[in-house]
Amino acid sequence: MDFGLDRCLECGSCTDACPSARHGGIVPDKVVKDVSEGRQAENVWKCLQCHRCSAACPEDIDVAGLICHLRNLEAAKGDIPERFRRSAKQMSKDLRMYPIIGRTASQRADLGLSTGEISEDDKNKVSKMLRGPGFDE
Amino acid sequence: MSDSLYRGCSIPARLPFIEAAAKYIIDQLKLDIQDMGEMPCCMEPVGLKSLDHDSWSDVSSFICSRSKGRLITLCDGCTVSLAGSVKEKGSDLDVIGFLEVIYENLSSIKSKVTSPIGISLAVFPGCHCESLMSSKGRDANKMMSEIVEAIGGKALTPSENLCCGGGVSSIDDNLAKAILNESVESFKATGASAVVTSCPYCFMQFDMVARYRTYSIVELTAKAMGWDADTEQFHRGK
């Protein structure tokens, strides 16, 4: 995938905008440099995927997209944080990150909102789409 | 052609008052927006998209294929995920968040304000909303500030490039807490009595984790227009 890393000016705008970097997490400009020079990027799971790095880049490099791609590669090797492993399991089970439980159904009724189910046909279609790392466990 | 409302899964299950408020606004303004009904998760852009690109692409495309007219989302994570799918596929489907719906109807909303909110608010649309608007050459902070002023509040501006920290919660809790605290301290420094956001994840982080008084821009807009639902049970922040 081409993220346009050859356009990087090494200006550090991505890191200046990064809330994680300010507190010792991922360092976006270091990730770009490491990938450009063939090294393993560090701390990719400490990225918030907030996209502030991409928005700040004067060369329109999709730094957040790059980091997401690096996470895909890590996940393919089985390196998945437990939180996201649970998310994938939940998604595979209900096709929703947050299922509507009894208390919420009651709150929804009080607000005049209905509560329904995804159709069986759609459940079958979407379930077959979930086939990658985390979803196949 | 009607627009389509995609509700996502965090708001219907965790913050249903935002869905109810949005529907009140749609009804009051007589907007031609139809609920898409029960749909799967958008494959949210922080965790699920990070696991497998093809699974994300297929599911998000499936949701987009069901949209008629514009696809309107309640959650900015959904907007990022579905707009990303549209961009990747080269589709001309327009995916917009509910903040944009409010903003494009602001003059009508202003004429329907019966209960001005009368509070000072730190304006924080949220990272995803801000980056999406930025990609369209628009300023989410300015848009939300105009909405706050139109419904009778005072808009205050915290520091730039803040985040709720939710993306690294349960991955690096110290990091998540530091990012969250930085934001809340910046909100307090404005002198505001609360923060207003358009993102449900930001709402949960600020309200439920930091216990800081937090409002949804959809909730406040509906309240200003006369929506009288009791939403206090959904607020834990003081």
Mind sketching the topology for me?
The complex is a heterodimer of chains A (137) and B (238).
Chain A (H helix, E strand, L loop, with lengths): L12 H5 L10 H9 L15 H5 L6 H14 L5 H13 L7 H9 L9 H10 L8
Chain B lengths: L2 E4 L3 H5 L1 H14 L3 E3 L12 H4 L1 H13 L5 E3 L2 H14 L5 E3 H7 L1 H6 L8 E4 L3 H9 L4 H11 L3 E3 L16 H17 L4 E4 L2 H10 L4 E3 H8 L14
Parallel strand pairs in B: 1-2, 1-3, 3-4, 5-6, 5-7, 7-8
Helix pairs in contact in B: 2-12, 4-5, 6-9
How is this structure best described in words?
In chain A, 47% of the residues lie in helices and 0% in strands. Chain A is mainly α. Chain A folds into 2 domains: 5-76, no CATH class; 85-126, no CATH class. Chain A starts with 12 loop residues before the first helix and ends in an 8-residue tail after the last helix. The model of chain A has no long low-confidence stretch (mean pLDDT 95). In chain B, strands 2-1-3-4 form a 4-stranded parallel beta sheet. Chain B has a 4-stranded parallel beta sheet with strand order 6-5-7-8, sandwiched between helices. Chain B is built from 12 helices and 8 strands. By secondary structure, chain B is α/β, with parallel strands linked by helices. At the A-B interface, helix 3, helix 4, helix 5, helix 6 and helix 7 of A face helix 1, helix 2, helix 3, helix 4 and helix 8 of B.
